[in-house]
Amino acid sequence: MSFDVVGFDFLEGLTHFLKVFGGILAAALVVSLIIAFLKYGPRGFGLFFKTIWQAIVDFVHTSPRRVWAITMLTWKESSRKKALFVFVVFALLIMFAGWFLRSSVDRADLQLKVYVKFVLTAISWLTLPVVLLLSCWGLPTDIKNRSLHTVVTKPTRRHEVVLGRFFGFSLVGTVVLLVMGVIGYFWTVGQMPAEAKSELVGRVPVYGDMTYSNREGNRPQDASEETSGVNVGDIWEFRSYIEGGTKSRTFYDFDNLDVSEIREAGEFRIEYNFEAFRTHKGDIDKRLACQMTIVNKTNGLRVPLPIFEVHEFSNRAADKTIILGGVDDDGNRIDTVTYNEEATNELKTVNLYDEVLEGGDITIEVQCLDPGQFLGMARPDLFIRMPDRSFASTYFKAVFGIWLQMVLIIVIGVTASCFVKGPVATLLTFGILVVGTGFSELMQGLAAGQTEGGGPFESAYRMFMHLNPTTGFDEGPLKSVITLVDQIAIGFLWTVQHLFPRFEYYNMIPFVANGFDVPWRASLLPSIAVTLAFVIPCLILGYFSLQLREMEAK
Amino acid sequence: MNQPENVIEIRNLSKVYRDFWGRKKVQALKSLSLEVRKGEIFGLLGPNGSGKTTTMKLLLGLLFPTGGDVSIFGEPASNVEKNERIGYLPEESYLYRFLNAEETLDFYGRLFNMPANVRKKRCDELIQQVGIQHARKRQLKEYSKGMTRRIGLAQALINDPDLVLLDEPTSGLDPIGTRDMKDMILKLRDQGKTVVMCSHLLADVQDVCDRIAILYGGELKVIGRVEELLKSKEQEQILTSTLSDEALNEVKAVLKKHNADFISADRPTSTLEDLFLKTVQISQAQPGKRFVAEGDDKGESPLDEEKTAEQPTAENKASN
Fold first, then answer.
1. N or C: which end of chain A has fewer CB within 10 A?
2. Fold adopted by A239-377
3. B114: nearest CA in chain A?
């Protein structure tokens, strides 16, 4: 997983949701109206609007007591049908896991990774299948056993059944997750070797926007212009390189840093993880020399930091950290920075918080000083480390991520079970989970219509005619027709891809395992947004599925 | 005389079951029209597949009519609010088998938004009424069929309904359970409630129903008051104490004189249900007592015994 975290724009997401949801809803209403008209003639219009009105009335008259009754029924059903047996499996796992995990790695940071990955993955893999099966089989079993007859012949509205089931399974899952999460936390903390305890933190990185200069050291005039460094031949283009001994630089721009928080922490930490690429052996005993310069965008102050060496193969955090401020040997705070001013070549001392970081808008310039060598960087390779959060906070955020995923699976499972039988509902929900987890990027690519060889119909034509996907397509009526049909198909694909939630947001385990705090805007917020975005349409779909189906059609 | 208020009105109701592709599979009901009046016990009769249960489910909104209208208390069958005044006992008691009797009644009480204290009181009353006090904490999966019917009836009455729909209420019950069920149905009528029951156990229907409708092939064939439908218009029945052969011959002569045909003279038999209930009563009072009647006309029958035994207790009934 890359930690190139990008903040989620909630407003943009909401607009997108409204566009998609509104579009699908409008299409569904139009299709329903046409079907009603074809089936019942002019009377169909009346029936259509009556059904819509009834739905509104039903939702307005939702009875929390009835919903709660069905919630508790679901809880009792799950617990008495031994769903909580999953605790035994979890207990067995963690009873013996320590034997195997303890000696698996020797490095402290990797110890954390192994334990956290094991615990959170075990919790996730035990909880999610259980709730998937429960939610997909609950209602179909009720319908098959006709227990639901005794419920819907009471003043129970159909959506109350859907809501009750949804809340009930969520309650079961929440209890399971909470118990496992708490046990898992104490087990992880308890099992971690003493030398690895320091790794139990939630680092809070602040990433900047990255720009490469040209060889003369100039930034592009247009700030939005995409820049890159030198490609040294790596197939993986994650990092781009700057040439040493030239004016080439990389700029990391940070805006709105919380200076008061940094001041309170008493130190300003820059962490980096650069890669060296050597074109000649150079001095065999020396590592690549580099330098960072902090430029304050408010007061224009330029503070070159001491030259540092790139320890690209080191595992020590200290080899990849620059700390300004902190405390001296006597324990006194150091609030100043002394540097060699470029213009006057004199040593100068400035206040770290009031001058270097004034206003919170800074740029960190990185330069490689060794001629002929190259320094590789990517956006996530340098970040400012804000005061750490506790391990418990980041760990339980990841548990919360599993919970959100679980809720989403439940809502999809319950909705599917409103219109298909248990096995089909299970396959459908599992299919959505698999596609949403592993194929969302592929679907986005297809739906964007940027694939080589054209859209589905053009691709099919090319295959049939043995045409190379890279060759041009003759202009003419055929091309116009195929392009038009492709546009419609791509529009359809664009809509369909939104029916699959992006489960990748929910995977917060790598953050915890690598000692990072789970970021709110890049991970938690989109996860909450995705879950909410599916809950409402699913409830509406579930309501109409139950409302419009006969409970016992022969 | 005022016309009694109609609780249920069915007009030209038809129902066609279709397959997945919309092709007609079977026509379960054909233009059924009938009314059920307030405060009566109405029986829906018919052989298997005649449309009794379909009618019941259409009344409850579990199925949608293909044609025609159904109204209950003046409201369409699809209206959820009408269920506030309805109690329904399904053909099989499709209850949640992992709940015990108390939890079952509490759950259904919650669906009626009943406050906790009212639910508690009503649960206790109903458990007492249907005679399952001894098993109130047992999960329903451990219940016998008779006990399941009893708790099924209790859940149907949890809201003290004005209209009770009973689908095969005596199905699977032993004679004591059947008698209790019939007593409870009659009691409901006495309380002013309307009862609609469908059954193919004709004797049970005859015992309790005021009016009946007989369906065949989805069509209404007979409807009316039970006594009117069963009354013979061409025969008279006279019950006397036992007659000697001589007296019987004289009666025959008198009948002949009045141009009436003598058809038969026989000692009336009681019902098997009465015999069974009497046997249980005596067995409780006099364990070990046995009756034998093997055709020599000197045999004994429990029906000849004085009513010395007490009525069977509810606990004994339930466990039988």
1. N
2. Jelly Rolls (2.60.120)
3. A65
